[in-house]
């Protein structure tokens, strides 16, 4: 199945090739637009706790870096878990997402540079 972006590109190509009219293009373009904002999550690397500095861990998660495995063990976080829609997440990454959300109010879009995941995945992981 094509993504909204791919569909819109195909619609534009169809319009420029005179396959569809401007009215058809406008209608189909509007119907094939996502309600979610298009954040460039693919420009960021996947989360890696080892690449985080002590200062970043304290600032982002309000926990010392060397305490994260201890919190993980105390809460009996699974090594991996799968969300309802199929997203796979490491337990450490999921814990860090929760720590980030609870450390101070932020939107899921604010977490993209840290975790390198789209907003719907961040939401699913935090709510699993």
List the helices and strands and how they pair.
Layout: H1 4-16, H2 22-31, H3 54-61, H4 68-74, E1 80-82, E2 88-90, H5 91-103, H6 112-115, H7 119-126
Antiparallel strand pairs: 1-2
How many angstroms does the end-to-end distance come to?
Answer: 26 Å
Counted by DSSP, the helix tally is: 7
Helix content: 40-55%
The residue ranges in which pLDDT falls below 50 over 5 or more consecutive positions are: none
Beta-strand portion reads under 5%
Radius of gyration: 20 Å
Q: Helix/strand/pairing class, anyone?
A: mainly alpha
Number of strands: 2
Q: Main sheet: which strands, in order across?
A: 1-2
What's the oligomerization state? Answer: single chain
Run of helices and strands: HHHHEEHHH
Instruction: Provide the residue-averaged pLDDT.
Output: 91
């Amino acid at each position: 199945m094509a993504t909204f972006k791919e569909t819109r590109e195909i619609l534009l190509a169809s319009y420029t090739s005179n396959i569809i009219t401007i009215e058809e293009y406008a209608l189909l373009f509007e119907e094939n637009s996502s309600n979610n904002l298009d954040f460039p999550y693919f420009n960021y690397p996947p989360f890696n706790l080892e690449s985080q500095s002590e200062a970043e861990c304290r600032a982002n998660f309000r926990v010392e870096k060397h305490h994260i495995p201890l919190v993980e063990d105390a809460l009996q976080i699974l090594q991996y878990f799968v969300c309802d829609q199929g997203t796979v997440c490491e337990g450490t990454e999921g814990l860090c997402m929760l720590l980030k959300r609870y450390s101070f109010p932020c939107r899921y879009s604010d977490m993209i540079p840290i975790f390198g995941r789209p907003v719907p995945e961040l939401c699913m992981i935090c709510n699993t």
